[in-house]
Amino acid sequence: MTNELNPKELDFYQKLRRRMQQWLSSPESKGNQYADYLMSAPDLFHLMVKLTLDPDVPTRLKTELGLAVAYFISPIDIMPEIIFGPIGFVDDIAVAAFVLNRVMSQVDKSIIDRHWAGDQDILVLVKMIIEKADRLLGGGAWQKVKNFINRNLSDGNDNIYT
Q1: Domain for residue 84, yes or no?
Q2: Which of 17, 18, 133, 148 has the most CB atoms at less than 10 Å from its CB?
Q3: Would you give the distance in Å from CA 51 to the centre of its chain?
Q4: pTM assigned to the model
Q5: Is 162 a member of any domain?
Q6: 136 phi/psi in degrees, rounded to 5
């Protein structure tokens, strides 16, 4: 099994998981409709990193995954964590879900399964995140995220996400 993390991944993964667990146990998170999705952030990050390193994933998809990982860890994004706290990971999770949705449509499910460390079914989780993202960010803001992804990940022939 290849679910083991190297020390740098482990640091980010553990810090993110710890941060989410602390927030989810705080009064601030009670009643938040996105709390359950926020706990998936560390597992989505882990999956993207592992798929980026997997020799069975096509290079073009690795590029998309790498850009999504960079967006995930970047302090500069649509909903910065420094301003919004853990809720600021909602856009990172949404970008991860959209990229993973594309990857999952083009690689064998066994590749995804060998790296998925989460408890939920990854296919169901990604679909639910995409649906929630559409509702949370609304048409205008979410269209900006999709446009960003298309500009940075498309090969120029078509839109990846419409």
Answers
A1: yes
A2: 133
A3: 12
A4: 0.76
A5: no
A6: -65, -50
